[in-house]
Amino acid sequence: MTETLLAFVVASVSGLVPVLNIEVYLVGAAALVDDGALVAMAVAAGLGQALGKIPYYYVGRGTISTPWLRRKAETPGRWTARVARWRRKAEERPVWGAGLVALSSFASVPPFMVVSVLAGVVRQNVVQFFLVTWVTRTARFLVVVFAPAWAMSFLPG
Question: What is the DSSP string of the chain?
């Protein structure tokens, strides 16, 4: 129970502070706990990361103000045209936006912090953003916690 709560807290903070790495924490924890706890930790870490990315979403939406983004939005030019094009695409094809969030959330390509901001900029549904993030981050963390044991099973002896 304690390790699950700790995974949630570390994931929440690492969702806000990009230099902290939840994957390193989970790999370390994987060596110390049993498989049942690993699943609970991965789910808790997925939830923590999803909640930790919500402020980035709201920065993109403009609810949380940042001077740099506000200047970009107020200055007509390539940025404004690009955002309008992406917003139109996201409105016309909501699955496209959810797919980009899922890909970035699972593989971190493109960087998920950037995609979190862009999801707010294009006004993706916040509930959809949260749920897709939670599911795909949880899947990512399940891979992270079980990959070491899986890889070790191929070693002789």
Answer: -HHHHHHHHHHHHHHHSTTS-HHHHHHHHHTTS-HHHHHHHHHHHHHHHHHHHHHHHHHHHTSS--HHHHHHHHS-SHHHHHHHHHHHHHHH-HHHHHHHHHHHHHH--S-HHHHHHHHHHTT--HHHHHHHHHHHHHHHHHHHHHHHHHHHTTS--
Provide the pLDDT for residue 152.
73
pTM of model > 0.85 = no
Looking at per-residue pLDDT, the higher value among 61 and 43 belongs to 43
How far apart CA 120 and CA 99 sit, in angstroms, is: 15
Whole-angstrom distance, CA of residue 119 vs CA of residue 85:
13
Residue with tokens 């923590």: 48
> Distance (Å, rounded) from C-alpha 51 to C-alpha 11?
9
CA distances to 60, 82, 129 from 73, in Å: 10, 11, 22
Sequence-separated (6 or more) residues with CB below 8 Å from residue 34: none
d(CA 33, CA 54): 29
